[in-house]
Amino acid sequence: MPDAFTAITVAPVGEDPLPFRGTDGKTHLAYDLQLTNATSQPATLTRFEVVDGADPTRVLASFSGDALVDTSCAYGDCNRLRDLPAGYVDSAEIPPQESRVIFVDFTLDAPGDVPPVLLHRLTGTGADSPAFGTATDIGYLTTPLAVSTRDVPVIAPPVRGDNWIALNGCCEPGFPHRSSVMSVNGKLNNSQRFAIDWKRVNAAGEFYSGDKTRNESYVDYGAEILAVADGTVSSVLDGLQANVPGTLPAQDPELASKLTVENVDGNHVVLDLGDGVYAMYAHMIAGSLTVKPGDTVTAGQVLGKLGNTGNANASHLHFQLMDGPSLLEADSLPYELTGFDYGGQVAPELIADADDNLTGKFLGGRLTPSEARESELPLNLAIVDFAE
């Protein structure tokens, strides 16, 4: 590409995107970009496209209008353009010398449809020369991004049994993990991009029965957490006491003051699976951890019990793969699970409209029978049955 003045610069947040297969049968790519208006004039983004680096006429994804900004939209294909680190904005204008982040994700029919290199086309208004002048129409291609050629990790399930819900999973914005960009160690990171909060319901579709303020009332509380592959224990944290269900510490001034980068994920285990892949299990019950740093583990080995510690408002297993041992600085890695049964989807409005204890029944979208699946990542709000 010839040199061109670019009012809005584009920089990746994290490593090269790695394609993976989701439970929708599609090949997914998901990554984040930092957009900076490096001029003294306001710049407005009206369209953002991902194109084939070898053939820019081949548009792989296009985001405009509500997909960029929609103040009335709570979840789905909307509000991809955010303030830093990930706050909502009310317009697609980027003020002078300010930055935004854009959450990019799209699907293709098959792995062979993914080009080796992606390019990004920006369309909008802004300064069109180093003299800055007045804002005018702009449009250009920029920021080649190589698609990762590493193998997608294929791992065993981290829990057993049926009726698990993949809360806060990949990939559309609106649920927490996809937009969990954080400034750590001098750079922007998203270690949770592909994380899942595994939470279980009973046969009636309820997350709890009885007193909703007691952890023991929740179906998944105390469930055994399993090693997803052979590996070595990199780090652990234990000793944090359980939260009261329904209260998220980050939203309580007194509790929030006690959160740190070390304890935000509660009692946890990080495994080194080799080849630059690490698995992190968070929010475990104090005293339930069965391993210590340096221990070797085998796939299926019990690591501890599912709890409600750290920044959590109810019991669940926060599970993620990442490319380093740091819970927050590492870059999130997608993965695929070995055999499981796919049981359909929970309607997103049921979760979005539920109270902080997730009161209600959530299996209305259950497939009967469920479908056997292999080497796929359960997408957001998938209903999943694992072997006992």
UniProtKB/TrEMBL annotation:
Gene3D superfamilies: Glucose Permease (Domain IIA). GO terms for molecular function: metalloendopeptidase activity. CDD domains: M23_peptidase. It comes from Leucobacter luti. This is Peptidase M23-like protein. Pfam families: Peptidase_M23. Residues 220-323 form the M23ase beta-sheet core domain.
